[in-house]
Amino acid sequence: MSALPYQEFQDSITGAVAQFHAIPKSETIRVISHLDCDGIAACSIFLKALMRENRQYALSTVQQLNDEVLGNLQQEQYSVVVFTDLGSTSAAAIAARLEGKTVLILDHHEPESSPSHIIHINPHLHSIDGSREISGAGVVYLFCKALNEKNRDMAHIALIGATGDMQESNGFLHLNKAILDDALQQGLVEVRKGLRMFGSYTRPVHKALEYSTDPFVPGVSGSESGAISLLNSLHIPAKNGANWRRLADLTKEETQRLIAAIVMKRISIDRPEDIIGNHYLLLKETLDEFRDMKSFSTVLNACGRLDNSSLGIGCCLGDEKMKRKAVQNLQEYKRQIMQAMRWYESHQDSPAIIRHDGYLIINAGDHILSTMAGTMASILSRSGTIPDGTLILSLAHQDAANTKVSLRIAGQNRGNDLMSIIKQIASRVGCDAGGHKDAAGTLIKIGQEEAFIAAAQEIFQRLSMEEKIA
Ligand SMILES: [Mn+2]
Questions:
Q1: In 3D, which of 435, 425, 433, 430 has the Cα closest to residue 456?
Q2: Is 0.90 surpassed by the pTM of this model?
Q3: How much distance in Å is there from the Cα of 39 to the middle of ligand 1?
Q4: What are phi and psi of 45, to 5 degrees?
Q5: Alpha carbon of 131 to ligand 1 centroid (Å)
Q6: Cα of 149 from ligand 1 centre, angstroms
Q7: How much is the pLDDT for 354?
Q8: Are residues 209 and 175 part of one domain?
Q9: Which residue positions in the chain have pLDDT lower than 50?
Q10: What values do phi and psi take at 227, rounded to 5?
Q11: 396 C-alpha to center of ligand 1: Å?
């Protein structure tokens, strides 16, 4: 790609910063951010920058920017409203509702075009792919860096946001890569090649192997005894004295033997050697859960899922007490996931689960937390237990009136755009939807579930038909 789009994107940021500087310091900045890992990272970077500027702020994090949220913002007395990691998909509604206020959107979701009185920063507006090249936290980071060079010290937080949005895949691309360079230069991050497995610093080796669904290891993933016998067969001790060893504790030579054995076990799988990845070590972090970017993003994700964004923000701003609380929050989140997965396993034959060639629909109602619906679908999509390319739709009640819907795809996504698929389905019941190519979702009324599921089945069947013909 030519340099021009990037120059234009940067120019749009420079312009926005100039407009921001013109806002009197007496104004309290109203900040609205997305309640997920990226959104938490995004608003943390922004808050730190505001503190540096000696500006007052009032923050809220929300799951989605609906009419109710916009209505409340309209009523409030704040005359400056900043949206981070959301806003672009509702730019027109924002412009209408918040007329007369100064509005700044810093986002990377597929944008609606907006009237010119809104300051709208989004890579897509310059033909840059915001689903892969930069996160909401990254957009905020670039803005804050242009505001004050000192904000470069938040580069790693921008990458944690990108990691939460699944933008790291054997490295970072373009804009994210440039942010990584900022982080490397300041000694915030170090990149190491290693087994692409979660929990290098937090899990005993056999547990890291057992829990590894991506990469999937036949006979080992999901089996503690399989994991232990693999280590035994390689003469890799699971313990060092009384302590469990972690992947990070293995010698170089042990790691190589383990990698070779895993490749052999995966020989019947597509790309069996696809088990090496980057580890991004956060050099200034002391607690195990925060030592690498993936696990830091998992902590933030859990904060979002359990509606504890303030803990996550505390983590990003370096508050040690908040970090310890966030680790407890992570344990609770894991308990909730286990519950959701157990519910799924034990309801295989119930009408709540519809299995079909090409798709799987899980209608969990009140049985799992709505914020777990997407997580459950993601876990299943990477479990290796569902045929590649299967669309996974999950539904769970968010409150007494609304149902949260999530769409994922099993295995590698070969060219499906999940956002456009769920938009088609949602439009049948008069709703809109949001998300990315690889993960999308929407909110419907509980009374619309039946019609929504019927529309989904019809559209999924048509898609799988087209796939077969193609
Ligand atoms: Mn995001």
A1: 425
A2: no
A3: 6
A4: -60, -45
A5: 8
A6: 23
A7: 96
A8: no
A9: none
A10: -65, -45
A11: 22
